[in-house]
Every structure is written in C-alpha cells, then in structure tokens.
Amino acid sequence: MDTDAIGDIVDKLKAMQNDNVEDQDEYDDVDEDDEEEEHEPITLGFFDKPKNKWSLQRQYFPSKAGGVPAWLDPLNIPSGGSFVCDICGDPLQFLLQVYAPTEKETAFHRMLFVFMCPSMKCLLRDQHEQWKHHPEKPSRSVKVFRCQLPCVNPFYSQECPQNNESHKPAGCGAVLCDWCGTWKGDKVCSSCKQARYCSEKHQVMSWRAGHKIACPQMQISSPVSGSNKSETTLFESQKVGSKNLWPEFEIIIEDESEDNRDTSEENTLSNSLISRTRADDTMNSIFDSFQGDADKKSWASFQECIDNAPEQVLRYYRNTNAKPIWPVSSGRPSNADIPRCSYCSGPMSCEFQILPQLLYYFGVDNEVDSLDWASIVVYACEASCDASLPYKHEFAWVQIYSPSTAL
Ligand SMILES: [Zn+2]
Ligand SMILES: [Zn+2]
Ligand SMILES: [Zn+2]
Ligand SMILES: [Zn+2]
Fold first, then answer.
1. How far apart are CA 48 and CA 314, in angstroms?
2. Does residue 124 lie within any of the structural domains?
3. Which residue intervals are annotated with compositional bias (Acidic residues) in the record (predicted)?
4. Which among 96, 116, 142 has a CA at the least distance from the CA of 358?
5. pLDDT per residue over 249-274, tens digit each?
6. Which residues are placed with Cβ below 5 angstroms of ligand 3, an ion?
7. pTM for the whole thing?
8. How many domains does the chain have?
C-alpha cells in the first residue's frame, strides 16, 4: 500500500466522528425485517501485514494488533497492579490498539489499548467477575486503557506525521522490558545490570531462554548508561526476547458499506484466506453445538452480518446508533451490566467489538483449553473525560461460547 495509507486511516476515523450522525437517516429503512439487530453501516477493521518496519511506530498513531503496543504516552505507561492479570498475576499480553481521536481539544490524539491474559482459565474466571455488578475492585484478565493527548504535547510535533522512515517523535519513552517489550522495565538484572524486566516472571523466562548465557558476556562488555539505553529503545525497534507475543498486524479501517476491497490485495492476504477457511469450518461446528434456538438465531444473524466482509476483525461503533452483534444470545450484557465511567461517573458507550476471527490470525490453536471468545466489546467513557491519569481504565465485556461455564 502507498504511504498515504496512514493518513487515510486517520482521516477516515476523524471523518467518521463527524459524518456518521448525518448519514444515519439514509439507512433507517435497512433490515426492517430484523427487529433485534440494527445493521447500520459502521466502520470495520481488517488485518494486514505491516507494510514496513516503521509505519506501526507510535509517531504514526497506528491502529495495530499483536507484537508490542505503540504507546501514545510513551513515558507514563500503566504500571503497578494495572499491567497484570488480576487472576494469575502474570503481565498481560498486548492484543490491539485503535486510534480514535475526537473533536475534543484534549483528545486530539486518542488511543484505546486492549490487553488480555492468554490463559483461557483466567478468561473463564474473568467471566465470573464480569457478572458481579460493579465490584469495588474488579478482578479482570482483560483490560482496556484510554490515552489521549492534546495537539500540543511533549511527545509529538503538531505537524501531520511525514510518511517516511525519518519521521521521529519528540521526547523519549520509558525503558521497556527486554522480554515482552510491552511494560516498563523497572527491574534490572542484578548480575549484568543491563537487562531490564517488567516482572520477575519475565526475568525468569528470559533467563531460561538464554539470558543465563548472555548475562556473563554482558557483564564483560562496557555497561551502557541509562540515557543511552532509552534512546536505543526509542529509535530502534524494541528488542523483544519473548517468542510468544501475538503476530503483528496493521489494522486497516474501512466502511462496512464499501464493497470495494481491492482485489489486487487478495494476493497479499493469502494467509488470511487460509485462516478464513479454517474459521468457516470451526464456525460451522460451533453452530452445530448450539442447543437452544435463541443461540442458533443469534448465530445466524451474526453470520449474516459478518458474511458481507468475512475477514473483518473489528467493528467500530462510536457515534453511531448501531449495536454490537452478539454471536450467541446468552451472555449478553444488559444496560445495567455496563458500569459508569470510574473517573467522571458519566455514561460509557460501546466503542468497538473484537470478533473471534482475530484468534485465527493470531494462530491460536483450536484446542479445548485454548483462548477463545465469542465477542469482546469495549465500552469507553462517552465524554472521553480528562482524568489526571495518563492511561484510564475502560470496560470490556467478554462473551464466551459456553454459557454453562460463564455462570
Ligand atoms: Zn491470567
Ligand atoms: Zn515483561
Ligand atoms: Zn543479566
Ligand atoms: Zn469519564
């Protein structure tokens, strides 16, 4: 894709914020025969292989999935209890991020980040927590953060990013974990005093994976000063020891009504077509496993919606009247299940939905205990309120296929 792509995505998201309200009338008479679901055209996200090494860096404000996050505020990234799975205590894994600026001055740049624990065991426990109404301290394995910045900020120039490799962000980022490349590397290896980790867990994994051998050699080579180290992580791609990060994709944004996915792209998406076949098989077997008619009806309606663009991974709803499409009828939240913003107490609105198709792109096995969900719906503060916290917690509703384990 040409280098205008990034600008296009930004423009589309910005335009979407403004236009959708006016556009709604045109589509009011669509799908009159389906009272339960409103199939209003929305914006869809598709996965594509990154075009180059640099376009998913933070100064280009990417919507992306897998790999490491492109932190919008690269300095004050979530730490403490925020970055771990509340159930097993392991650091969370980066799922995806969506660039969704608003008209609001302080949300000139606005990014939503989704993290989750890759353990299905934890996700099943997370389900129990989800159904508790507004627990004081929610215990979740899926976490969403909202970060926003005004046009004038310490990290990025006011000019539109130049779409080339030489464009650099202003200001340094925090030093990150050498293992996951995701979270702050606050812990330093006591032997070499160079390797940095977010957690003991990642230090142990790194040690076993080879730091045991590398560490004595790093002690001999001249130690790197702290400032050099942070520049290295800023201007080169972050070194990541872990082989278990999910594969990295760019998220391409398109309108649902657009039926013009470039056929020339089909060639470059060859691996996604394979995934789709696999996905179809699994989808059919899921359908067969449903007992109740309600689930079957819900599933059929979901499939109908997806069929227009079967490779969609993300459905973006903000500022539309469209509602998430639920693959199964059980395990949907009622309005009362969606909490209010924990910062301004205002309402939260549905921002986007992550479809289970994502798991196929991520190459997640289809085993009994593999990570799986029917839908993840992200709700964010409707007002995009400004709290002093750089990364604000938002809310995710996770629907899984097996209601018996959810209750
Ligand atoms: Zn966990
Ligand atoms: Zn780490
Ligand atoms: Zn070491
Ligand atoms: Zn709020």
1. 13
2. yes
3. 20-39
4. 96
5. 999 988 887 554 443 344 333 333 33
6. 189, 191-192, 195, 215
7. 0.81
8. 1
